[in-house]
User: Fold this.
Amino acid sequence: MKKYLISLLILIFLPACGKENKTTTYTLANIDQFKHDSSLYTGEKLIKYPSPVKKETYTKKDLDNLDYNKEVRVGDIFFRLPDKTEIFKKDDTYFVDFPLDLSYSILLSFKKLDTDTDLMDLAKKIIKKERLNSKPIRNKFTNKDSLYFISEDDTYTYTHFFIKSPNTTLYFVIKEDKTKAGGKIMADILMTSYLAGEDPFEVSKSFEDYKEDLSVFASQDVEFSGLSIKIPENFTIHQEEENFKYFIAKKDNKVIGEIIIKKDKVDGDLYDAYNLNSGDIIYPTQLINMGKTKNLGGILEGEIRLYTKENTLTGKKFVMKRKNTYITIIVVGPIANKSLSISMADSIKESIKK
Assistant:
């Protein structure tokens, strides 16, 4: 583990090396200690992963929805990497290098850990050596576990995350500067992952902004377990149970927005409740927590992506405590219009009356 973290620190100086040799597309190709490696590729592409990428290199905007068409296998875990990246290896760590773009710096690395330790315990060991930016958050699935946290130094932000199966534990780090893509890349890689003997999850993405079809103004009254909130008029009730309400907004029969309100009894704190509603807990929807979480006035909030076979949506998740239960509110909209989705979520949060 210590060698791995030292390797990451060495990479702080790599962008400068890349600028000296403009004929090389990949920075790591200039560094003798890093060897190009294609041994992990499966050569399979059972499903196509949707992406708007069109150019030979990735723009900052592209990083939010990359072309995950290179499948790799480590142990019994399969996952996808962006199509234009290349893998390099140094010691026991693999580094995924992106085509050189001087407007930003990003590097993904991963390694297999020889341990069966709980992910929270693993994270705590690493955090002792890091400047923490966001506490560990879990993404729990039926057959695999995942957890992430965010650290920083004076230049870079690091999104650390794990994918754990019954037999394999993988540790990833996304190092970035001048981008805010780490959470989105983590979420997409996690959604491409599956275990040996399983089928990959089919993902759809619409890249329309739907700016004329969703309102940010929360004006429709909703009551839930003694909680009063307002939601936009575009949303209609889709499913309702005693501890669960589910609203959707549609355009041409495609779901372009969702609001999920859920009540849970949790033996723990806000973070334990936040961790609960993730992964495949609301099957067949897949919920991926991502990015920095903040506790503002007793409401723990952070960003989230919601994946289905019909569409992928983005937005925010809010968790608050009421008496002996926790209320989770998930608000998501188009991935191509994040500002609308976030504004819509914040408008609903502001309407909460406890």
Q: What stands out?
A: The chain has six helices and 20 strands. Residues 1-24 have pLDDT under 50 and may be disordered. The helical segments are 2-10, 14-20, 119-127, 182-192, 270-276, 338-350. The two ends are 46 Å apart (CA to CA).
